[in-house]
Design brief:
It holds the Pfam family NIPSNAP. InterPro entries: Dimeric_a/b-barrel, NIPSNAP, NipSnap_domain. Residues 39-136 form the NIPSNAP domain. The protein has four helices and five strands, in the order αββαββααβ. It is α+β, with helices and mostly antiparallel strands. A hairpin with a 4-residue loop joins strand 3 (71-79) and strand 4 (84-91). Helix 2 (51-61) runs antiparallel to helix 4 (110-117).
Amino acid sequence: EFTEFRKERGNMLLSRKNQLLLEFSFWNEPVPREGPNIYELRSYQLRPGTMIEWGNYWARAIRFRQDNNEAVGGFFSQIGQLYMVHHLWAYKDLQTREDIRNAAWNKPGWDELVYYTVPLIQEMESRIMIPLKISPLQ
């Protein structure tokens, strides 16, 4: 039965990729949250050779984004597509997301850190996710 399921599933897949990620030491460890929340997964493909520089900047930048407990986790790839960074953020809703992100620009130093990290990025993507009822991250 499982073999048949795998065969049917294979006919529906267009692509699949996996990554083994490690957590940045300067981020908080992801912990269960009360909800309801939405989550934003921001993924960055960095230029090869820039991971240490990115980490050094974000070790300082993360302090600008913890006032509202929105920083869930920061991860980087070890296996799979290399030089990939993922940031996971929690927000009550899309309006709260916009308000928190805009407020960061009013903090002295945030604009400078963004200025220095943007050239390290080759590609970036943002995805909004809604947790399932069984998720500890509500």
